[in-house]
Model the fold of this input.
Amino acid sequence: MHKDEMKGAAKDAKGSIKEAAGKATGDERLEAEGGADRVEGKVQKGVGSLKEAARDVLKH
Done:
């Protein structure tokens, strides 16, 4: 697993928590921030997956 995959997963989880907290409290800003963090985390996980795949291809 590439470090970007781990960081992305952490950002995605943090975003989910922020988004849920924003929904529960009616804080639209917090909810939007959470959604943005989730998207950023998913993108970062994808980049990490691509880096890992490229590393595997170059090894062989």
Observations:
- The helical segments are 3-25, 28-59.
- The chain has a mean pLDDT of 95.
- The radius of gyration is 15 Å.
